[in-house]
Amino acid sequence: MDESRSTYTTFRQLLAACLFIAMPLGIGSTTAAGQDRGKDITGHARVVDGDTLDILGVRVRLEGIDAPERGQRCKRRWLPLTWRCGRTATRALKTLINNQPVRCLSRGTDKYGRMIGVCFAAKQDLNAAMVRSGHAWAFTKYSTSYVAEEKIARAHKRGIWRAKTETAWAFRAKKWQASEQVAPRDCPIKGNISARGRVYHMPWSPWYARVRINKRKGERWFCSEAEARSAGWRPIAAI
Prior knowledge:
It is built from six helices and 15 strands. By secondary structure, it is α+β, with helices and mostly antiparallel strands. It folds into two domains: 32-166, CATH 2.40.50.90; 170-235. Strands 1, 2, 3, 4, 8, 9 and 10 form a seven-stranded mixed beta sheet that branches. Helix 3 (126-132) runs parallel beside helix 4 (147-155). The longest helix is centred in the N-terminal third of the chain and has 21 residues, at 2-22. The relative contact order is 0.12. Residues 1-34 have low confidence and may be disordered.
């Protein structure tokens, strides 16, 4: 009887030790509320767009890069046509991850409360790979980490460098400015209530033009993402 009890106790101790070791790797029941955006994080990643991930309920913005927005189109090199560079960037990031666990090293948080991170799938730096493959710009306004990768992509005319292309930040600024002209009180973010719950659409969202605000349903306009988030709304998820 004493020997069985001793064996059971040893088993429980081993199990507890395994769970303790597993937790930093993102294994186990962890929620957004339990995660600290100031710490590194590892787990299964859902790709939001070409420079944003959701891991264990934490939204991670890839540090030092800026990918085309999902609704953005870019010019082709020779023909007067465009291609869906925003959608392509999202798919490129999914391909790089390839359902592998993603580890993000925290570089702090941005003004929207998102974790800023340098992320890896296996040993591959996802931030660097996105810029090197021509699916994102080096976001030199905030970081010069990937300037060398951008030079490589530009030299080989990869992705967004096939032809002269509007940068993602210029695209967002133009969409915001145009939307401000028709939105009430210069507050162009659309708060929509649907089967997905309370979500908001930025002016550069591919679904923005189709959304109609119905105030009787409780839908509303927001002036900033911070305002929308503090009111309990979340950004529309990628499809």
